[in-house]
Design goal:
It is a single chain. By secondary structure, the protein is an alpha/beta fold. It has 16 helices and 15 strands. The protein has helices spanning 10-22, 68-77, 85-97, 109-131, 157-165, 208-220, 228-234, 249-257, 281-284, 329-334, 341-352, 385-402, 412-419, 446-450, 455-478, 495-498, and strands at 2-5, 30-33, 46-48, 135-136, 146-149, 173-177, 180-184, 189-192, 320-324, 361-364, 371-374, 377-380, 406-410, 433-435, 438-443. A 5-stranded mixed β-sheet has the order 4-5-6-7-8. Helix 11 packs across helix 15 (455-478). The longest helix is centred in the C-terminal third of the chain and has 24 residues, at 455-478. It is elongated. Pfam families: DUF4130 (PF13566), UDG (PF03167). Residues 310-462 form the Uracil-DNA glycosylase-like domain. It comes from Paraburkholderia metrosideri.
Length: 499
C-alpha cells in the first residue's frame, strides 16, 4: 500500500494521478491523503505531490486522453464533499486508461456514481449563485464593502467567486463559508482556506439596499396564489436562514392561511366598504358555451362530481310540467328523474290528485346531482344561484319545446329558476299565478315531506302537494290556461301582492 499526499484540489490530484499511472500503480494499492502524515509505517512509500522535495526525481507522467464529457464530470466530482473522491476519481481514470470506456456510462456502477456526484455539485453551484446575499457595510467601515455568509453543500466557493468577480465590478466583497473565504478587492481575487465562523462576517449596521429589497419582496408576494410545495421546491427551507427575505416567509405564509388569500396582495382591499353597481343579472353572468347535448354540458362545475346528467321524462305535448330542484342520489345513478324516495312520495301525490305520471312532463331546474360526503353516503346539497342560472339554458329549451299550459314548481329553487329572481315560496303557495298566458302553481318539494319529524306532519305536507297538483289539473282541463311563453318577462304576482 502506497500513500500519496496531495493538496486538496484538482490540479494536485491530476499531477499525482498521471505519475501513478506511469508507474502502473493500481487504485487498490494507493491511499490518498490530504494532510502530511506524521510518519510512515514499514513498507510504505510516500509520494508527496503537493510540494516535491529537492533532489527527488519524479517519474515522468503518462499522457491520458479522456473525452470532453468525462473531463467535465471529473472536474465537477473533484468539488464534491465525499472524503474518498480522489481515490474514486483515480479508479475512474485507471479504468479509462485500461481501455474500459464503460466507466463513463451512467449504466456502469462507477459511471452512475460519477454522474450522481457531478449532478449534486452542479446543483450546489446553481444554489450558491441563487442564494448568496451580500450585505453592505457602513460607509466608514474598512473594505470589503459587501460581505456574505453561505454554507454550500460542496466545495464550490472558488467557482462561485469567479462568477461574482465578473459581475460585481470594482466593488470589494467577501464571501465566507465554513471551509474558507473568497475576497475581491475590485481587481484581484484571493481565496483563503481556513475554518470560518458565521459571526466573523456579521454586519450590525443598517443596510438601505436590503431594506428596499425586503419591501419589494413583500410587495410582490401574492397570498392568493401561495403554493407552499412549489415555494419550498424552488427555494428550499435550508437556505432561508441565509436569506434576508427568509425571515419574512413564515409570517407571510401564516398570514395567507389566516385570511390574506381573500384580499390577495392589497391588505387595504379588505377594509374597503365597497359600493353596489347596478347591472342586469343576465349581463353579470359569465359567457358560457352552448352545448349540443346535455351529456356534454360544462356550463358549471357540477358535472365533475356527478355520475351523469339527468334529463326529463314525459311526453313532449304534456299540458302540465313539474319542475323539481335537482336529481338525487338514485336519480344520479339511474339517469331518470324522481325515482328515489322523494319521487315515490310524488307518485302518491299525483295519484291523489287524479293525475297520471305518464301524462306529466317531469324535469329539474339543475340537471346534475350536487352532493357532499357524510361517511359513506352522498347527501343532497342545495345548488348555488350561479349553478341554477347556468342550467337555465336547458330549462328554457324544455319550456320552449313542451309549451305547457300549467307549470308546477316543487320547492323554492324551482320557483326561483322559473321566475328568474329570488322569491319566497310561502308567498306563492296555495295561489296560482299567471305566467305569460299560462299558469304557475308553487308547492313544496316531496323531499320536504321526508324531512318532517313525524308521520302526521309528513301527511300534511303531502296533502298540500296533492292539492297543488289537483289545482294544476283543474286549470289544465278548464281551458282557461293558454300556452305558456318561454321568453320575455312573465306576468306574475305573488300571494302577498294579490292580497
Amino acid at each position: 500500500m502506497r500513500s500519496i499526499v496531495i493538496d486538496d484540489h484538482f490540479a494536485a490530484w491530476r499531477t499525482a494521478s498521471l505519475r501513478a499511472l506511469a508507474e502502473r500503480v493500481a487504485p487498490e494499492a494507493i491511499e490518498w491523503r490530504i494532510e502530511q502524515p506524521a510518519g510512515l509505517q514499514q513498507g510504505q512509500t510516500l509520494f508527496d505531490y503537493g510540494k516535491l522535495q529537492e533532489g527527488v526525481v519524479a517519474t515522468p507522467a503518462v499522457a491520458v486522453h479522456v473525452s470532453k464529457e468525462l473531463a467535465a464530470l471529473m472536474h465537477d466530482c473533484a468539488l464534491h464533499c465525499e472524503p474518498q473522491r480522489w481515490a474514486f476519481l483515480y479508479k475512474v481514470l485507471w479504468r479509462w486508461q485500461q481501455g474500459d470506456r464503460a466507466v463513463a456510462s451512467p449504466a456502469d456502477a462507477d459511471g452512475a456514481q460519477l454522474y450522481r456526484m457531478a449532478k449534486s455539485v452542479r446543483r450546489a453551484k446553481h444554489d450558491m449563485i441563487a442564494y448568496v446575499r451580500f450585505r453592505q457595510q457602513a460607509q466608514t467601515a474598512s473594505p470589503p464593502e459587501y460581505i456574505a455568509w453561505y454554507e454550500p453543500d460542496h466545495d464550490v466557493l472558488a467557482w462561485a467567486a469567479e462568477h461574482f468577480s465578473q459581475r460585481m465590478g470594482r466593488s470589494s466583497w467577501m464571501i465566507a463559508t465554513p471551509r474558507g473565504a473568497a475576497f475581491w478587492d475590485g481587481q484581484q481575487l484571493h481565496l483563503e482556506r481556513r475554518h470560518v465562523l458565521p459571526g466573523e462576517c456579521r454586519v450590525d449596521t443598517a443596510d438601505e439596499a436590503e431594506a428596499l429589497w425586503l419591501a419589494y419582496y413583500r410587495s410582490t408576494f401574492n397570498p392568493a396564489r401561495l403554493n407552499e410545495a412549489a415555494l419550498e421546491q424552488h427555494m428550499p427551507v435550508r437556505f432561508w436562514k441565509g436569506l434576508p427575505e427568509g425571515r419574512l416567509i413564515p409570517a407571510m405564509i401564516s398570514e395567507a392561511k389566516s385570511g390574506a388569500r381573500r384580499v390577495a396582495q392589497a391588505s387595504e382591499v379588505g377594509a374597503l366598504a365597497g359600493k353596489s353597481i347596478a347591472v342586469e343579472a343576465a349581463l353579470a353572468q359569465p359567457a358560457r358555451e352552448s352545448p349540443s347535448s346535455l351529456d356534454t354540458c360544462r356550463r358549471c362545475d357540477l358535472w365533475r362530481d356527478a355520475t351523469q346528467a339527468v334529463g326529463s321524462a314525459g311526453p313532449r305535448d304534456a299540458r302540465i310540467m313539474l319542475i323539481g330542484e335537482q336529481p338525487g342520489d338514485l336519480e344520479d345513478l339511474s339517469g331518470q328523474p324522481f325515482v328515489g324516495p322523494a319521487g315515490q312520495l310524488l307518485d302518491i301525490a299525483i295519484r291523489h290528485a287524479g293525475l297520471s305520471r305518464e301524462r306529466l312532463y317531469l324535469t329539474n331546474a339543475v340537471k346534475h346531482f350536487k352532493w357532499e360526503l357524510r361517511g359513506k353516503r352522498r347527501l343532497h346539497k342545495t345548488p348555488a344561484q350561479r349553478e341554477v342560472e347556468a342550467c337555465s339554458y336547458w330549462l328554457e329549451r324544455e319550456l320552449h319545446t313542451v309549451r305547457p299550459a300549467v307549470i308546477v314548481t316543487l320547492g323554492a329553487t324551482a320557483l326561483n329558476a322559473l321566475l328568474h329572481k329570488k322569491a319566497s315560496l310561502r308567498d306563492y303557495v296555495d295561489a296560482p299565478f299567471e305566467l305569460n298566458g299560462g299558469w304557475g302553481v308553487a308547492t313544496y318539494h316531496p323531499s320536504f315531506a321526508l324531512r318532517q319529524p313525524n308521520e302526521a306532519a309528513r301527511d300534511k305536507v303531502l296533502g298540500e302537494i296533492s292539492n297543488a297538483l289537483a289545482q294544476a289539473r283543474e286549470l289544465a282541463e278548464s281551458g282557461l290556461a293558454g300556452i305558456a311563453a318561454t321568453s320575455g318577462t312573465p306576468n306574475k304576482t305573488s300571494k302577498k301582492e294579490r292580497q
